[in-house]
Amino acid sequence: MKKVSWGILGTAQIAIKKVIPAMLKANFCSIDAIASRDLSQAQLIADQFQLKKAYGSYEAMLLDPTIEAIYIPLPNHLHVEWILKSLAAGKHVLCEKPMGLNLSEVKLMNEELRKYPDLRVMEAFMYKFHPQWEKVKSLIASDSIGTLVHVHIHFSYAQLDPNNIRNQKRMGGGSLLDVGCYGISAARWLFEEEPMKVSGLSEYDPKMKTDRLTSGILQFSKGSATFTCGTQMERFQVVHVFGSKGKIEIKHPFNCLDQEATLILQQGSAIDRISFEPVNTYTLQGDHFSKAIRTLEPSLISVSDSMNNMRVIQQLLD
Prior knowledge:
The protein is of the alpha/beta class. The protein is built from nine helices and 14 strands. It is globular.
């Protein structure tokens, strides 16, 4: 299968440190261009990774007819704007989560996407491509822990720099949009349905006005999920999946890059540790989306799924 030609829209750290190096190792991705509002910065990154082209504006790269797909690592408040501009330029789009700042933005994007039936858009929840999650879902489906009853998710880190985009309210900063979205996504994915009721509490930084701690409860017809996310606390992540006759602990549920992953399956007094060889989920994500572009098969993360995830986020923001 011919590789998809990719352009990187911006020089965010996640692109430079994680996504570009990973996608350069992918089987079906060719990273051919990068754009920045500063041409010298774009050229610097292009030289670093030996990319063919560097552009001094986002618009210039979108005009390049050889680029088929765009990866958007921009701050949250720019996501929908540049998804729409990329679609108008005839490009497929892989956009960092969250898809937008609120539900109305994502609905607008979905409506516009209908104008481009040959183009694909996917939200970059890279964690879903780790094989440990397929195993968790198969354990639930095979009744290994009985009936799924409850899921608890924790995802936190410490970021106190007021100039960091994660602490900029107008840019969509705060713990809920940055890492809480993972907990909501995972809970909905495991229960395979949408929550009937959502409630939450947030604590806001008095100066930066972003939520530095948010906890939520999602009530499903089959059970419940709770999550806590924070940006001013110890770095930690874990998912606990509780069933009627067992439980699963996912030790590194979200950021598990190039390290061994471990699930702990407990059934009564019996404990089984299930290990996975290191993989790079950004590489797997890039290949998955590139194959979806070529084969026209559905991608793992649909736009409707992204819209439903944002619907829950919106309920917690309101």
